[in-house]
Each structure stands twice: as structure tokens, then as C-alpha cells.
Amino acid sequence: MLPKTIKPLSKSLVIDAENSTGRSSFLAAKYPPTGNHLLAALPAADYGRLRPHLEAIYLPLGWSLYESGRPMTHVFFPVEGVVSMLSVMGNGESSEIATIGNEGLIGISLFLGTESTPSRAIVQSSGLAYRLRASDVMKEFNRGGEFQRLLLRFTQGLMAQIIQTAACNHHHNIDQQFCRWLLLTLDCVPSNEIIMTQEMLAHMQGIRRQGITNAATDLQASGIIHYKRGKITVLNRRKLEQRACECYGVIKRESDRLVLMGKAKVRQASERVASDRRGKDRRDVKPVASRR
Fold first, then answer.
1. Helices (H), ranges, 222-245
2. Mean pLDDT estimate for the chain
């Protein structure tokens, strides 16, 4: 039984998740694990060790990947879809603290050594993820190689997003928060469309539904978005960025910096390996004896 303060999954969502094997197989054929940026950045040897243990799983809208205080059994690497991390209050209300897509993973508590967290993770936009058992995560993480460095680098970016989101929720108005959320979500989806009801969005943002309605109506009147029946279509991203507060830029720049840092380190490692091989090849070449 879930704590009374946390709403359990509806029966339809549980059935959808349990009977999604066919859908997972279909999506897995279309979206390989390397659709996740962290898995794609791994050296071939590291990825080769993990690949047999990666299990494709369909993520239905509203599905809970983990609950507050519950032990985590897997880490999830999304390749399509968006997951929200939520802070849950004692009265059951919640507020989003971070958004994660194919740039990262869900379940940092596992490799940070705590195995559980006071937050919960809910699927905000349906899609596909690859999950890895806790034992396999820790086995590779404890090797101390690129997998460990990538996960820790992502964790730093996630912490930056959580900190900036907290500041944004305190200092900026609902319109600015809504614009920041739209932009972060857009960065996680392949199109300019976001499937999200106002009720679910208000629940995640910890804002009254009327506040979300007013913000969406204002953006629609300005020609920035089109909203109808739970689908938000962004028509003008540049104007949306102008309406958002500086928090989106702060989060985006830090994320981009860490991604570039990771690519640079992988490139340097590849160059070192290539250089070592060239040196070995030169050492292995035996001089040809001259003929008299």
C-alpha cells in the first residue's frame, strides 16, 4: 500500500504498464539504447558490457517509476518521453523539481549510496526507456571508468536544475515558471508538441489549475502556443524564450557545458588510445636487415 498522502496509480495505468510488452518491443526496434545521450557517450567496451542487461520498457503517461521513500530496484535511461521528479508534501500536494529526458537517467540515489529518495518520479510524456538492475548499475559504476564519470556529471547538472527550479518557484511569477517549464520539456521531446492536461500540469507544478489556464491563455493570445484538449503546440520558440525568466538559460547553459565537457574527455581518451596504438605499432616494427 502506498502512503495515503501519495495518490496510487489508476488501474488503467497499471494494466497499461503490465501489458506493454508488445509496445516495448515495437519501440525498442525504433529507438535503440544509444538514443539516450549517456549510453551513447560510453566507450564501446563499456557499452558492450551493459548492453545485454538493458531492458526496454514502455513508459505510459502518469506511470510512477519510483515513490517517495521506496527502495529503487532499477535505473531508467529514457530514449523517448519525459519524466518529472516531484517533491511530495504531507497533504499529498506535489511540485516538480526537475525534468529528465533522453539526456539523462532516473534513479541517481542508487549510485549515490542511499537507494531511496523523498521525491517521486512520474512519466510526464509517454515513451520508451531502458532500465538497468541496481546490481548491474553498481558493478559498472564501481569500475571507476567512463560510466561513473558520466553519471556523476549528469548528477551535477540535475542538481543545478533542482536548485534553479527552487529559486524560480520562489522569485518568479506563474507565467515565467510556465515558460521555463515549456522550454525544458521541449528540449526533451522530438517535436514542438507536448501532451499534457492542465490538471496534470498544475499538479506537477504545485500551482492552481486556474493559474495554468491563465498563463496558457495569455501565451495563446500572443501567438506563442496553441492549446487544445491536452496538447500544447509551441508556435514561436524565440518569443517563448523572451517571455521566460533567466532560469531556463542558467539550466540550459550548465547542461550544455557538462555535455561539451563529456564529449571533450571522450575525444581526448580516444586520441590517447590512438596515440598509444601508433606508438606500439612503431615499436613492433622490426628493422629490415640490409643486404650486402
1. 237-243
2. 82
What does the DSSP 8-state code read for residue 33?
G
Query: CA of 54: how far to CAs of 32, 39, 71, 195, in Å?
Result: 10, 10, 20, 27
Whether residue 283 has pLDDT greater than 60:
no
Report the distance separating Cα 233 and Cα 231, nearest Å: 6
**Cα–Cα distance for residue pair 103/258, rounded to 1 Å:** 11
Question: Which three three-digit cell numbers place residue 21?
Answer: 510488452
Is 119 in contact with 86 (CB distance < 8 Å)? yes
CA 225 to chain centre: 24
Burial class for 172, CB neighbours closer than 10 Å (0-12, 13-18, 19+):
middle
Residues 6+ apart with CB under 8 A from 95: 86, 87, 89, 169, 204, 205, 206
Q: Which long-range contacts (CB under 8 A, 24 or more apart) does 224-227 make?
A: 225/182
Indicate the pTM of the whole model: 0.79
**Where are any strands of DSSP class E within the chain?**
55-59, 64-66, 74-88, 94-100, 119-133, 193-195, 225-228, 231-234
Instruction: Report the alpha-carbon distance of residue 41 to residue 36 in Å, rounded.
Output: 9
Over residues 222-279, the pLDDT tens digits come to: 999 998 877 899 999 999 999 999 999 999 998 888 877 766 665 555 555 455 556 5
Write down all domains in the chain, each with its CATH number in brackets. Answer: 14-259 (2.60.120.10)
Count CA within 13 A, CB hemisphere, residue 195.
13
Angle at 81 between CA 205 and CA 167, to 5 degrees: 30
